[in-house]
Amino acid sequence: MKKLQSLDQFREFIDTGFEIEFTLNGKGCLIEPDQDAEEFSPRRELASTEQNNLDYIKKFKDTNAVLEFKIEGKTIKDQWRNISNIEY
Predict the structure, then answer these.
(1) Pair 3, 73: CB distance under 8 Å
(2) Which tens digit of pLDDT belongs to each residue from 50-83?
(3) How far, in Å, CA of 38 to CA of 61, rounded?
(4) What are the φ and ψ backbone dihedral angles of 6, each rounded to 5 degrees?
(5) What does the domain layout of the chain look like in residue ranges?
(6) For 1, 22, 40, 55, which has the most beta carbons within 10 A of its beta carbon?
(7) How far apart (Å, rounded) are the C-alpha atoms in residues 55 and 49?
(8) Taken in order 59, 21, 53, 81, is the CA torsion positive or negative?
(9) Is 20 in contact with 88 (CB distance < 8 Å)?
(10) C-alpha to C-alpha distance for 30 and 32, rounded to whole angstroms
(11) CA 17 – CA 78 distance, rounded (Å)
């Protein structure tokens, strides 16, 4: 999938627990279930997939917290239209 159809679609992918790899403003990212949380937990984590920066970025208590996280001064939910190259 190259582009998202809606913010609700992205929210559904996160809620379902998919590992979601995507590009946002030219930077590679990965959202996945929190590896330290119990199975089927709503907890998620965000990591960079950039070759020069394969670091974990942040852990979140749930999907809403993911979508409220700011990257380059804007929340992810306000930038969903800029997400491309999405794979899950």
Answers:
(1) no
(2) 877 767 789 999 999 999 999 989 999 999 999 9
(3) 12
(4) -165, 165
(5) 7-87
(6) 22
(7) 8
(8) negative
(9) yes
(10) 6
(11) 21
| The token pair that represents 20 in the structure block | 């979601």
- Single-letter code of the amino acid located at 43: R
What tokens appear for 28 in the block? 């590679």
- Please name the helix (run of DSSP H) or strand (run of DSSP E) that holds residue 83, with its range, or none: strand 83-87
Specify the length of the chain in residues: 88
Q: Is the pTM of this model over 0.85?
A: yes
Asked whether the beta carbons of 80 and 7 are under 8 A apart, the reply is: yes
Tokens of 11: 């929210």
Task: List Cβ neighbours of 85 (8 Å cut-off, separation of 6 or more).
Answer: 2, 21, 22, 23
